[in-house]
Amino acid sequence: MTDQPLYPLRFKPMFEYRLWGGRALGDFMDADLPGEGPFGEAWLLGDRSNCASPVANGALAGTTLTTLMRSAGARSWAATPIALRGFRCC
Question: Which of 4, 7, 36 is nearest to 15 (CA)?
Answer without folding.
Answer: 36
